Structures are given as C-alpha cells and as structure tokens.
Amino acid sequence: ADLKPPDAALRRFVGGLPGHVVFREVDVTDRGAVTALIRESRPDRAVHGAAITAIPLDAERARFGETAAVNIMGTLHVLAALAEAGVGRIVAVSSGSVYGRRENLAPISEDDAKDPQALYPITKWAGDMLARRFAQVHGVDLAVARLASPFGPLERDTGSRPLLSPMAYWAASAVRGERLVVTGDPAYARDVVYVADVASAIAAVLLADRLPHDAYNIGWGRGTSAREAIDALLRTCPGIEVAWRPHEPSPWIGPGNLPRGPLRCARLGQDLGWQPGYDLASGLAEYVEWLRRSP
To answer: What is the pLDDT of residues 162-209, one digit of tens each?
Structure first.
C-alpha cells in the first residue's frame, strides 16, 4: 500500500516476480482508512516503511509538520490497525541516521547511543522507540530494521524523498554517458548497501520463527568513500569522465547525513544467519544493468 498508485517502473519490476501483488492506495495519516484497509486485507505479517525523507534543509523547512505526521503518527496508526487485526509479525523500517554524528567512525551496534540531529532522523527515532514500546504494551511481535544507505533499482523521487543517494545520481549519469561531477571530500565514507541485500535482510527478520532482539541494523558493515564508489562504477562503465570538485559542498553531507561509522550488522548474522549476497562491485554492476534495461 502507498499514498500514490504504482508507476510504470514499479509495475514492470514486480511483473516478473513470483506470487501475486495487489496495490492499494492509503494515507497513513488517515487512521480510519488504514484501519479499514488492514481489516479488509488481514495480512499474516507486515512491513511498515511509509515515510517522508525530508532532506535537505529546504525539504525539512517546507514539510516539517507533514513529515512528523507521517513518520510518527502514521506509524502509530499502522501499528494500532495491525495489532487489532492480530498480525503475527511486524517489521517497522527505521534508519541508521538515528545514531547521529560520531567523532569516532567505528562501527555502530544496535545498543549504541542515539543522537539524531535533523527532522528526518528525529522522527525516525521517535517512530523507532514508539514502535517498540507499542509492541511491549500490546504484546505485539515486532522488530525495527535500521537501514544503512540503500541504493539500487527503483530509487526515484515519488514525492516523499527529494534527495536521492549519490549512487543513484552517479550510476544514472554513467549509463547516459555523462560526465560525473563529484563534490565534497572524495574520502568521505557513506554506509551504502545494495537494496537487494536490504530486502533479503528485512525478509529474514519478517519470516524468522523467533527474534531474540527487537532491533536489527541492516547494511554491509563497512563504509564506502566516494572515490571507492566511482572507481567501482568506472569498472562497470569504463571511459566515463569524472570531475572531482572537493572544495564544493556536497548535498549529501549535512544535518540529515552526518559523519558516522558503518552500522555493525553482526546481530543479524548471529540471530538469523543472514549474510549479504552482494558487495560494492556486484551491487553496482547489477544496478547499472537494470538502469540500462529500463526506459
């Protein structure tokens, strides 16, 4: 379910998948509509990921109240309806941005301190805490999944995320044969992860017989600098010109994207046996191939 109907890209993507996919439109801030949808569909298990990613600052300024309503109250509306319907397992999608800035760039575990600094991470941390407290109070089987920085197929702005990942911009430009412009410190590391690994990790949490913990980091457990990402992209798309502009500000470094170490994901492996199926090279290669096939 989503606020907007599926576009052509999404329909093409799911068209070749096994099983049957039904799309429904719903606004998570409309508690009555959410309750009616879940009463009608009665899912066995559920993943809640509806959010507004109000980054950068102008998006935060323009959609402050709306972001809080969707990311916090929308989450509570969905959880209340799912609890009433007796859903078996719920995964609430959270964000690695809840950990905030770190002077020490060591890997971050689920129990480390949280220090969100901008609207999006603040609302995600509020939703994260409230979801786990809701589960305790209502006896719901729930875990939160704190994502690193995903990249891959179907990354586009559908009205809730104006700033896409740098990987999306760089890969799309490379496929079009355009010059890549890389601003900011090329050694600045982002905690990237290929979206197929995010999906398999969420599925592992959703479908596990039991969960020893109620929070799981999802990522590759390592940082990737802009230079590493561009080098890997050039191996897939050779001959692309790159313009390095280290003294120009990067749109991906700011209050919503503060420096921190990568998410430590050992818990996911220890509890559920999950391991990533991709690395930077294979993830980028698959993403580029998908972009080439997409109109």
So the answer is: 999 999 999 999 999 999 999 999 998 999 999 999 999 999 999 999
The pLDDT, as a whole number, for residue 103 is 80
- Quick: pLDDT tens for 126-145: 999 999 999 999 999 999 99
CB atoms within 10 A of CB 201: 26
In the numeric block, which tokens belong to residue 189?
């590391």
Over residues 225-249, the mean pLDDT reads 95
Q: How many CB atoms lie within 10 A of CB 16?
A: 6
- How far is CA 114 from each of CA 38, 88, 131, 146, 259, rounded to the nearest angstrom? 32, 29, 16, 12, 13
Q: Which of 111-115, 160-164, 239-243 shows the lowest mean pLDDT across its residues?
A: 160-164
